[in-house]
Design a protein that fits this description.
Layout: H1 3-8, H2 20-30, H3 32-35, H4 37-56, H5 60-85, H6 99-131, H7 137-162, H8 165-174, H9 204-215, H10 234-239, H11 242-247, H12 261-266, H13 290-301
Helix pairs in contact: 2-5, 4-5, 4-7, 5-6, 6-7, 9-13
The structure holds heme C (HEC).
Heme C binds next to helix 11 and helix 12.
Length: 316
């Protein structure tokens, strides 16, 4: 597949479908979190050495130069890996499910790319300045700017995986009253562990129906029934399709979200699908966000009420 398709297409849900190149690209993405701290440390070290060089001269400038070289090379690698990781999390830019996450992804992606470019340009200028015995002002300024940018980009990256821990901690520090009521209304689906309760006035018509109509009926409605499964009327929606028949697991078991094929599939991720549980919807950038998944969980656990005779209509 062409390169741009690799970058922008979400990871496929079926291992068998992915080409070797694609799986290699996914591996590169998986290594982004492991690699990305290295250039951050290197550029911060470079900046620190520069501050010391300013006061003490001596060999600190050489150390800064060395750290800058390392930072430039490793940031380039980490940035490329970041582009490989984004589609795997459904972070394909404008398609991410919630706007707060979209903005952070955008900032992190382009901030990180800009940082890598800035570091490489600065490194080239530093090499040239040393060879031709020019002044060092430009590359020093570039290094300090890059260190500041690294702090920002790192913070955005951290918010994607951990939620805004820093912002929350700071607001708690300044206002202890808010400690017990920190809002996570817009935390990205990936922020594991933070589960917001469904809204108080919660019901099939207001909360569940719109999700199914918007995200599921295009493949499980009157027009198409993927896996022989239809989700627009109560009886077939509860019964399940071909997978359900082979596993003996109904799609919706009132009161038991964890025994329900539908819940297992909407809450599955790329990492934990097996022969019976594929993440739904299949495309990573169309998955439900955490709040929607929690709403469906609560609805099933509360007995999965479905008004008699109600037939859903696709709203795509
Ligand atoms: C783009 C098409 C598509 C969309 C959208 C989609 N699905 Fe699926 N669904 C499939 C396919 C394909 C399968 C068969 C599993 C496989 O082989 O990947 C499936 C299977 C299922 C099954 C298993 C049924 C069975 O017992 O065989 C459930 C449950 C399910 N989907 C629920 C959902 C829900 C809930 C949504 C919306 C949140 C959804 N799907 C959105 C394509 C889709």
């Amino acid at each position: 597949m062409p390169f741009h398709a690799l970058v922008f297409t979400p990871a496929t849900t079926h291992v068998g479908e992915a080409s070797f190149l694609q799986r290699l690209w996914e591996l590169a993405g998986a290594l982004h979190p492991a690699t990305v701290h290295f250039p951050i440390a290197a550029v911060v070290m470079a900046a620190l050495a520069l501050l010391l060089a300013w006061k003490y001269k001596g060999s600190f400038e050489d150390i800064a130069f060395f750290c800058l070289m390392i930072a430039a090379m490793s940031s380039l690698v980490a940035a490329v890996m970041g582009w490989a990781l984004a589609p795997q999390h459904g972070y394909s830019g404008v398609f991410a499910t919630n706007t707060h996450t979209q903005v952070i992804v955008l900032l992190h992606r382009w901030g990180g790319s800009l940082l890598a470019i800035l570091l490489v340009v600065t490194a080239v200028l530093a090499i040239r300045a040393r060879r031709q015995k020019l002044g060092s002002r430009v590359w020093k300024a570039g290094t300090l700017t890059a260190a500041a940018l690294a702090a920002l980009v790192g913070h955005w990256g951290g918010s994607l995986t951990h939620g805004d821990l820093l912002g929350d901690a700071v607001s708690r520090l300044l206002d202890p009253e808010s400690a017990s009521s920190v809002e996570h209304a817009d935390t990205p689906p990936e922020s594991a562990g933070i589960v917001e309760p469904p809204p108080a006035s919660f019901g099939f018509d207001s909360d569940i129906r719109p999700i199914l109509e918007r995200s599921c009926l295009s493949c499980h409605g009157p027009a198409k029934q993927k896996s022989g499964y239809r989700l627009d009327a109560k009886a077939p929606a509860f019964a399940g399709g071909e997978i359900g028949q082979s596993t003996g697991r109904a799609a919706i078991v009132p009161g038991e979200s964890h025994a329900s094929q539908l819940f297992l599939m909407i809450s599955a991720t790329e990492d934990d699908f097996d022969a019976e549980v594929y993440p739904m919807p299949p495309k990573a950038d169309q998955r439900l966000d955490r709040q929607q998944i929690e709403a469906i969980r609560s609805w099933i656990d509360a007995g999965a009420a479905w008004p008699e005779g109600l037939v859903l209509e696709s709203s795509e």
